[in-house]
Design goal:
Oligomer: single chain
Number of strands: 0
Structural class: mainly alpha
Number of helices: 16
Order of helices and strands: HHHHHHHHHHHHHHHH
Strand content: under 5%
Shape: globular
Largest sheet: none
Distance between the termini: 61 Å
């Protein structure tokens, strides 16, 4: 028999599902054959509502979180991750370690960019501020798209603390990656570095901009003055 908490959670999500929104989301998140999220299924629940449910079920047991994380439904996996984020905020170091381990052992289920972006900095990044960060380099060298995205997006937490070294090193590793979602993620993180230390970002760009994928460069220089932005784009050709 399914556990009561999980039954309530799934009933809540089902009650807030929207079939029209589901179709839109399945198109937006590229769930078709051969696309990056092939086969993912959406219920059509909004992120604000999913966050609300996460706060309501913040005390969900770890085994239930693991089970929810393995769901075929996108919003159920997102909810599991958002509950983890909520739990992480008030957790002690031992509890944070448990949540971190659940996350890194279940990356196969963290399989779309929103799942990564909304949670990797808040769990992986936060935990690694005081721990060895080698796992990020392991993920950066992975053949799995979402582990590579986790590796760079998790560093957003470090960037907010004006710690850029891992962002820049991982950006270098991912510089020649073939996937557009990695180009966007790296460019975005470089832009965030530049918001806090333009000299650091430009030092990286001057060294590597000619070999950067066009999308990566565009994201990285998005906030530059127009003349400087155009100069980078023209000199890359």
């Amino acid at each position: 028999m399914e556990k009561t908490a999980l039954k309530k959670i799934k009933a809540k999500l089902k009650a807030n599902a929207n079939s029209k929104k589901s179709k839109i989301l399945q198109s937006f998140f590229k769930t078709g054959i051969g696309e990056y999220a092939q086969g993912d299924i959406f219920l059509g629940v909004t992120v604000p509502k999913t966050r609300e449910i996460a706060r309501e079920f913040i005390d969900l047991q770890k085994n239930d979180i693991r089970e929810l994380l393995k769901s075929k439904y996108h919003e159920q996996r997102l909810l599991a991750l958002l509950i983890m984020v909520e739990q992480f905020k008030g957790a002690n170091q031992t509890q944070r370690s448990q949540l971190y381990k659940i996350y890194i052992k279940n990356t196969k289920y963290i399989n779309n960019w929103d799942l990564v972006d909304l949670t990797a900095p808040k769990i992986i990044g936060e935990f690694l501020t005081k721990s060895n960060r080698q796992i990020l380099y392991q993920f950066a060298l992975s053949d799995k798209l979402w582990e590579k995205r986790i590796s760079i997006i998790a560093t957003f937490c470090f960037i907010k603390n004006n710690d850029f070294k891992d962002t820049l090193k991982i950006s270098r590793i991912l510089l020649n990656d073939a996937h557009d979602l990695i180009h966007k993620a790296v460019g975005w993180m470089l832009r965030e570095v530049g918001k806090r230390d333009l000299t650091a970002e430009e030092a990286f760009l001057k060294k590597y901009y000619k070999q950067m994928p066009r999308t990566m460069l565009r994201y990285a220089i998005e906030k530059f003055p127009q003349d400087k932005r155009l100069a980078y784009l023209k000199s890359q050709i």
